[in-house]
Amino acid sequence: MIFVTVGSQMPFDRLILSTDRWLRAHPSAKVVAQIGDSKLGPMAMETCRILPPKQFTALLSEAEIVVSHAGMGTIITAAEFHKPLVLLARRGSLRETRNDHQVATANRLRGKPGIFVAESESEIPDAISCALRSKAAFDSVPTSRNVMVDRLRDLIHLL
Q1: What span, in angstroms and rounded, lies between the C-alpha atoms of 55 and 21?
Q2: Which residues constitute the domain of residue 38?
Q3: Residue 32: its pLDDT value, please?
Q4: How confident is the model at residue 142 (pLDDT cuts 50, 70, 90)?
Q5: Cβ distance 32 to 45 under 8 Å?
Q6: Could you give the CA distance from residue 47 to residue 32 in angstroms, rounded to a whole number?
Q7: Residues near 9 by Cβ (< 8 Å), separated by ≥ 6?
Q8: Cα dist. 1→31, 54, 58, 138, 152 in Å?
Q9: Could you give the CA distance from residue 4 to residue 56 in angstroms, rounded to a whole number?
Q10: What are 33-71's pLDDT values in tens digits?
Q11: Total structural domains in the chain?
């Protein structure tokens, strides 16, 4: 299962629509998306607007990969659960957020193990495919608490 999240503050239709297009081309995949206050209509994926923290954690824990905006809460949680992460930053120029802080975050994380940054929604399909292919290699890395704490520390230090 692929878990998609836009965070808790506002909708992010570019991310949801591009992931939904990918799913239509891969109908055997299962995608669950937290879409916030989006006004989008029926989609190929299962959607919910808001998730209580326990349900969010459960879905993220079950996911093969996570597709998200470049919000620190999701980035840190994906790292804690050792999940490959596809990022599409919200852009201030598109009025998806107040400035380009998510672009800066995504750029700092680009190329790090398990992080797949899409510059635009057109790159989401390739980023998802790369993240899914990387899953086997990612799973072979030890997931002890110390390794995950070190990974989180590295991610935070980079920002």
Answers
A1: 25
A2: 2-158
A3: 96
A4: low
A5: yes
A6: 6
A7: 36
A8: 6, 17, 12, 16, 23
A9: 10
A10: 999 999 887 789 999 999 999 999 999 999 999 999 999
A11: 1
| DSSP structure class, residue 65 | E
Enter the pTM of the model: 0.86
Say which DSSP state 83 is in: -
84 token code pair: 């490959």
Asked if 33 and 19 count as a contact pair (C-beta separation under 8 A), the reply is: yes
Q: How many CB atoms lie within 10 A of CB 21?
A: 15
Burial, 13: exposed, middle or buried (Cβ in 10 Å; 0-12, 13-18, 19+)? middle
Q: What is the CATH number for 30? A: 3.40.50.2000
Strands in the chain per DSSP E: 2-5, 31-34, 46-48, 65-68, 85-88, 115-118
Q: Compute how many other C-beta atoms are within 10 angstroms of the C-beta atom of residue 132.
A: 17
Size of the chain, expressed as the number of residues it contains: 159
Give me 138's structure tokens.
């990612």
pLDDT tens-digit profile of 77-132? 998 899 999 999 998 888 888 888 888 999 999 988 899 999 999 999 999 999 99
